[in-house]
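Notes from the pairing session

We agreed to fold both candidates in a single pass and log them together. This is the raw record for the first candidate, unedited. Please don't reformat it; downstream parsing expects exactly this layout.

Candidate A
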Amino acid sequence: MDLRLLADGLSYRLTPNSIHGILWLQTHFESQHWDLLADGRVTVSRSDAEVLWQDATKGGLTVAPLPTLSPSR
């Protein structure tokens, strides 16, 4: 598992679970946010979580499956 999206109220907490997850986050977010991302202290909306999930899985990462987030195909 490289990334996790954990339900946190109406949003999702983004938590890296591997070095691949951290590296992927570093290529997608500005350096000023890296510490927060690495510590799992970032939350995103449902729609942003879905986009992030799709992008990360297309990039070859494994993302924790959530019953409320499913691939749109």
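Candidate B (folded immediately after A)
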Amino acid sequence: MKFENVLDDINGFGRFQKMIIVINFIGRFTMPCHFLLNNFIAAVPSHRCDISSLDDGGVFSNLSEAEKLVVGIPFNEDGTPSSCQMFAEPQYHLLFNSSAINELPFGRRIMLLVSYVSGMIFAVASAFSTSYIMFAVLRFFTGFCITGIVIVSTVLSMEWVDIEHRKLVGVIDSLSWTFGNTAFAAIAYFVTDWRWLIVTVTSPVILGIITWRWMPESARWLIANGKLERAQMYLKRCAKMNQTEELIATLKTETLATIVVTEKRDRTYSYLDLIRTPKMRRLALRTGILWFCIATTFYGISFNVTGFGLNIYLTQFTYAVIELPAKVSVYFLLDKIGRRSTEVGALLMALVCLGINIVVPKDMSVARTVVAVVGKGFSSASFATIILYSSELYPTVVRQNGMGYNSFMARFGVAVAPLILLLDEVWKELPQVVLCCTAALGAIVARTLSETRNRCLPETIEDIEQQW
């Protein structure tokens, strides 16, 4: 018997599963706040330089009015424009009334260094802690960790729904990020003080933590680890909520024991199991590289929100809104052409958009922004696909470990993306070229993965070695 057969009997997409979706949506809705803070809190307040006060040799004479505000003006370590006379005019909207860079006793480079180092530490901690803690006593307290929310919610959603609705749940989980991104960009427009912006965009995290206490365990994982009584309890709760109580009597521990058959029922799985066997090693290597490439491409585009000379709020809002049609398209493509083809196609189209911006002249800021927004849409589609795709590739016994490892590789890509953007000091187009190469590598690696469309989730490592 397969676990999918049990889900079919007690309704694999009933009230119980919808409750999980709502809890996941609330928790993941708050996730974009820390990325929004990176873009806005450490930004330099809006200035307009009196060009006549600069002995620039004509360097600034050809700048547009928008560029004279922030883009291209040299800045001191404290964030103020060097040799510029600051003044405000009524027709210019002050982007930031205050900035962390101006008011905190740190230089801009120090803040960037701290952000980079803390991001790497967070990446390692989140990847390992959520894998070992989430199924133990402190399971529900891992919800405070943003990466933990991604991993836990994705795995639980995939393991509690039937095959038919896995893609729907995956897309809904991904859309929660989109709605959060859009809402927070709008909030930042009206909350221009960086202190109050921190309070405003991080407050909803409290709601996510509160709702997390109702999140059920994964019955599939409990069965795989020999905890049949607890799995039976959650399955009975699911049957009751889905109004299939007449089938509760059939959920016997003897029957559940036949769902997942492993070599040793009491064995503890770890990260080492990702590399013990040949096919698992290849799977871990490929998905790790793919997550790194996708995250680097996605955030390489996202972090360049001010690089096109247009309003930072409008660009950020558009970056968020474009994800909606992109992810809706993913919903239809996942079954039409499959997970693998959707992933490869999205990365290749993001590559094309990055390549176009290499040849588009710098003074065509609107055209460059439009191309970047389209590229952001394709990169977000690749991210939405890989989260679902990876959860279907890994077996139940190490799915959490696999997703934790992949999350670490993605966080590594997030940390590397800002450094890639700094390569423009060597050559203006070098960041775009590097991101193009990253997207191309991701597409090549994705092409080598197995297709998971309409397949039951693998339960054990033996399933991977023997069948896939």
